[in-house]
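Lab notebook: predicted structure, single chain.

Context: the supervisor wants predicted structures on file for every construct in the current expression panel, including those that have not yet been purified. This is the next one on the list. No modifications to the sequence; it matches the entry in the shared construct table.
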Amino acid sequence: MFLIATGILFLINRGFTALKITKHGIFMKKTALMHGACLLLFVATATLNTTNLLAQPVEEATEIETTEIAEPVDDFVTRQVIAEKKTLQYAPIREADILWEKRIWRVIDTREKMNLPFVAPESPLFTLLRDAVLTGEMNAYSTEDDKFTKRLDKNDIKNVLFEIDTITTINMDTGEEEVQIVQSELNWEDVKRFRIKEAWFFDKNLGTLRHRILGIAPMIDVKNDNGDFMFERPLFWVNYPTSRKVLAQHKAIGTDNVAATITWEDLFETRHFASYISKESNVYDRRLQDYLAGTDLLMESQKIEDELFNKEHDLWSW
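Prediction complete. Output recorded below exactly as produced.
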């Protein structure tokens, strides 16, 4: 078909070449014939291609390979900022540059509005500390003192975090009473306060008042058999400088912005929490509540807070 159409086009072209075109009508007639020949060539080529396509053998249908469906993820992007975050080491400080120092103990009440990140259901701080000490990512220390002298082993940690109790049940087969030992896990909602130990010091090399958090201790209420509050006690101490790496890899839910990458290490370093002072280093090693109560205790706490911020100005001489 292709050869036939080519031949027709060649003969028409040769015939018009022999003519002496002197009038406009002859030129128009030649152009129309040329367009018709091109159309004939296109139809012939298309017919030939269709014939060749139909003549090809039909391939057998192959079975489609089934791929495993990936597990769904509650996100639209891979979150790696927090997982890949690295903590910056503290700048070294010479002991000779510490002109003045005071130890401060604070209490963070999670029921205050600013401290809501500590009890956010998605990532409460106590759950992070509990899981870290159980897996060995953090070291837990005894509350006999707050100097991180006695490290707790796994059995001691379980005794602190899990309560063992006995209950009386009735055997359905024999109808007799049986005593069973049950183990209940401490709920993160029961931890309403955290105790923070920190050091405030004046660095004469930089001429500024600086601070460093030393430890964190979750607090729990102790109640009597009637459920009345008696006192609160710390569960265990965690050394903050050695735990910064773990705290920096867990997000703190502090704002409505889901894309925020604030970690627990950022929260403590920027001091994004509300607290009040419960103790300062003193000769008698006593807490404020040991000799003050009520509004007097709060006023004394605020007084110590003001003295800290005024200390930097008092150490300067003009």
